Description:
- The chain has 380 residues and is an alpha/beta fold.
- The protein is globular.
- Helix 4 links the parallel strand 1 and strand 2 (139-146).
- Helix 8 runs antiparallel to helix 10.
- It has one domain: Spore Coat Polysaccharide Biosynthesis Protein SpsA, Chain A.
- The chain contains 12 helices and 15 strands.
- The two termini are 34 Å apart.
- The chain crosses the membrane at residues 52-71.
- GO terms for molecular function: glycosyltransferase activity.
- Keywords: Disulfide bond, Membrane, Transferase, Transmembrane, Transmembrane helix.
- Belongs to the glycosyltransferase 64 family.
Amino acid sequence: xxxxxxxxxxxxxxxxxxxxxxxxxxxxxxxxxxxxxxxxxxxxxxxxxxxxxxxxxxxxxxxxxxxxxxxxxxxxxxxxxxxxxxxxxxxxxxxxxxxxxxxxxxxxxxxxxxxxxxxxxxxxxxxxxxxxxxxxxxxxxxxxxxxxxxxxxxxxxxxxxxxxxxxxxxxxxxxxxxxxxxxxxxxxxxxxxxxxxxxxxxxxxxxxxxxxxxxxxxxxxxxxxxxxxxxxxxxxxxxxxxxxxxxxxxxxxxxxxxxxxxxxxxxxxxxxxxxxxxxxxxxxxxxxxxxxxxxxxxxxxxxxxxxxxxxxxxxxxxxxxxxxxxxxxxxxxxxxxxxxxxxxxxxxxxxxxxxxxxxxxxxxxxxxxxxxxxxxxxxx
Length: 380
């Protein structure tokens, strides 16, 4: 039954009610997700019809601001005389060009990658993530890093934490440490590993694109969230926000492993070769494992990471309705500044990070276009 929507939105509501009763009594048993999707879509359409002029003005203003911010001249990175920051006694430079081998045998599936999902006491996000990534063709398996004190889910008891399409395994860790996400995993069948947090929302096409970028340069990191560091006159380092990275300087030297592709060999290198003191600081501060991984990789490759552009990646840890996490604390950025400075002592007091400009103007639109995309899809 097709009901033509009226100007006041009554027709849309009638159609929604019609779909609801069809759902309730139909033998097809439409899912709650279908029902909620229709409800959100109709609500958004009704809202848009009533506010088309203000919304159009908002889009125009934001577009102008975005264009202006992306076209303004970028600052140059500060120059610090190396003689003012001599090497420290803790320096333990790793000069190898490749990480130590994860396993002696080759990977079973070179055309796929494994999701390594970091989660902690956010069951709803975990279930949604497993459901979402179970539909991606290129994913071989989903490995969940389980650091909680309670036992991990059991398929027969809580099937929502598993998938019929993908192999979902829970890797139980003895203690809650951010280093756990980079510990070697038994039974990895792929070379490529996509490290991600449970609050990331990435379409399958974006993951496939990241995999293709990584295969062109597989000893490097390929990630969706770039950041920049700068050297300070006092020989310390500062970790820059996304705004400063994209807008102020237009360069990046780090990609965050909350959404990044890397080679499985780096897991063992991080755990067994990277200075133990760095891992101890990460455990103590509950921060900076992503920075440590990037420094370690760049020290081996002597090159910047690869930024994977996306307009559709959503970070639930940001925005007006962000979920609570480590990065939401007030001390987050000051701790990351401290991490950069302290980690540098193990690399000759000079971080092996290599700033590089974004390749296109479109890349610098990313932080604002992602926000707009999230807003207009009801995700922020």
